[in-house]
Amino acid sequence: MNKFHTNYIITMKDIVREGDPILHQSTKDVELPLSNEDKETLICMMNFLKNSQDPEQAIKYKLRAGVGLSANQIGLNKRMFVVYLLDEKGAKHEYTLINPKIVSHSVSMIYLPQSEGCLSVDRDVKGYVPRYARIKVKGFNIEGEEKAIKLSGYPSIVVQHEIDHLNGIMFYDRINKENPFTLPENAKSLYDDSWE
After folding, report:
1. Whether this model's pTM surpasses 0.90
2. Which of 5, 24, 14 is nearest to 119 (CA)?
3. Of 135, 34, 31, 30, which Cα lies nearest the Cα of 93?
4. Could you report the per-residue pLDDT of 66-112, keeping only the tens digit for each?
5. Structural element, H or E, at residue 101
6. Structure confidence by residue, pLDDT tens digits, 48-61
7. N or C: which end of the chain has fewer CB within 10 A?
8. Residues known to be catalytic
9. Spatial contact of 137 and 149, defined as CB atoms under 8 Å apart
10. What is the CATH number of domain 15-195?
């Protein structure tokens, strides 16, 4: 029985923390068409992101703000995630992606100067996480339709972070072990307009 039905409110106690083996394994493809259970889970996950970004709801349920959530972060071995964010220009991005794959990407890379955060990581991790500046992702939406989405900038970073989750990779696995602030030559800060 799926506890993540549409009326269930995901809170921080549902979020799997680092050290749990599910965060370090590759997730299984989701069967299509989506079962009602998977649809309800995805709606529930999206509601969590929206609640976490709403100051009143975040205080009420003691939520940390999140912009992306993958199924294995709530303990499900399923290749699906949700993203809800405003990009650098204030445009809203709302994606539910099932069995996503990055089909192409730019050579140029970007990074968040403040490093990345993760709902599954309760500590502050310092260091730069290089990501592709632009990506094209293919996957299925909640209706089971195949979609190809082109992303750049912050949404591109967030979607790569979530796809990494589905592949059992944590964001800090991409930080240079010798020097956390070392970057590839072609990487620029997200806030440096010259990457565009």
Report:
1. yes
2. 14
3. 135
4. 999 999 999 999 999 999 999 888 899 999 999 999 999 999 999 99
5. strand 92-105
6. 999 999 999 999 99
7. N
8. 162
9. yes
10. 3.90.45.10
